[in-house]
Amino acid sequence: MNSLCAKGIPTLGVDIDRNRILTLMESVTPNESLSEKALRSYLQDNLFLATDNFADIRECSIVIVAVPTPLLPDREPDYGPLKSACALIAPNLKNEALLINESTSHPGTLRDLIAPLVAGKRTDMAQGIKFACSPERVNPGDLQYSHSNTPRVVSGLDEVAKTKVKEFYENFVNEVLVVSTPEVAEMSKLLENSFRMVNISFINEISDYCSNKGIPVREVIAAASTKPFGFMPFFPGPGVGGHCIPVDPVYLLKNANEDEIELPILESAMKLNENRYRAIVGYLDKQMNGLSGKKILIEGITYKPNVRDTRETPATNILRGLKDVGAQASWHDPLISSWNGSDSTPISAEIWDAILLLVFHDSTNTSELLANSKRIFDFTGRMPKFGDQVQIL
């Protein structure tokens, strides 16, 4: 929305969440990528309108589906939001409209799920409607790469759809790549995030090895990074989080399993990430001669720095794992006041036996961390070294 309105393109936002709509219409921004000043300007200039009336879509020539594709409690893909959105949109699409899917899912989603679903909800059998996709490419909190300077991969079910979707994104994106089929575009997104999952899981495994051998892994990474070819640095941490990296590979694995295709490397990486908290708790237990009764504070519970997003955050399992072994575990985050039914604990509430620095925000107070802890285990590599008090992992 921000990119479209900034180019003077009137944009309609439709959502089933009435509270979200009211919040937007009151110029309250939903995330860090859109300033309240910009949102207020778009509303005043009639460039943006938020509504829960899906009938308003009938005035739109281009409709984008951008809904979450999360996981169910059993870690299975949840297609519910995508199916519901398409069912609500379908009866209100004008003939010859372009429907673009930005939601991430398995290859074949546009062709085998969305297009038949939309056609089945219309009496005119989706007359003239064109179907395209452009998997979302966004890095929340990134000040360098935005929608405009991040290339977009697009495709469509026919040549007309490919042309239309390319022309649309060229209004606000510097580089648009048209690929042969929607399946190529959909798979490219899954490859991007599966690649990151595999490499992050691998470097965490290497980090554990280096830790046991007394080798500073970040110095190893810096040394390897001097090679000008054949190496890409990844850095260890508490595990991956967010709405993409821990989720997208699940959609790929599920689809592969349905076709009896094995992806053992990706499956192993997923299991390593899911069990990362166990390795962390076990390491802390050895380092601290037991965790039972120890006062532990987790600092930073969002999934990445400077973003108010806790989806799939590694902090969830780490906190639970600490409590399972009897630690008196609490959490603090300068960006989050309440989470999972509990409130952020002030750093100064205790002299903590240990603080686990999982995320380093710009607003992280290092002096306060040092003043209120016996030990700090830094999973970010950004804490200043302070004698034996700080252990960089």
Task: Describe the structure in your own words.
The protein is an alpha/beta fold and 393 residues long. The chain contains 13 helices and 14 strands. Strand 12 (354-357), helix 13 and strand 13 (376-378) form a beta-alpha-beta unit. The longest helix is centred in the middle third of the chain and has 32 residues, at 182-213. It is globular.
In short, what is this structure?
By secondary structure, the chain is α/β, with parallel strands linked by helices.
Topology summary:
Layout: H1 2-6, E1 11-14, H2 18-25, H3 36-44, E2 48-51, E3 62-65, H4 80-89, E4 98-101, H5 109-120, E5 130-133, E6 152-156, H6 159-169, E7 176-178, H7 182-213, H8 217-224, H9 248-258, H10 264-274, H11 276-287, E8 295-299, H12 315-324, E9 328-332, E10 338-339, E11 342-343, E12 354-357, H13 366-371, E13 376-378, E14 390-392
Parallel strand pairs: 1-2, 3-4, 4-5, 6-7, 8-9, 8-12, 12-13, 13-14
Antiparallel strand pairs: 5-6, 10-11
Helix pairs in contact: 4-5, 7-9, 7-10, 11-12
The N- to C-terminal Cα distance equals 39 Å
How many discrete domains?
Answer: 2
- Tell me the major beta sheet: 5 strands, mixed
* Series of secondary-structure elements, N-terminal to C-terminal: HEHHEEHEHEEHEHHHHHEHEEEEHEE
Widest sheet, order of strands? 3-4-5-6-7
Helix count, per DSSP? Answer: 13
Q: Give the strand content.
A: 5-15%
Rg, rounded, reads 23 Å
CATH architecture annotation name of the largest domain: 3-Layer(aba) Sandwich
Structural class: alpha/beta
Residue-averaged pLDDT: 93
Which spans have pLDDT < 50 for at least 5 consecutive residues? Answer: none
- The portion of residues assigned to helices is 25-40%
Question: What's the CATH class of the largest domain, please?
Answer: Alpha Beta
Described by the principal axes of the CA atoms, the overall outline is globular
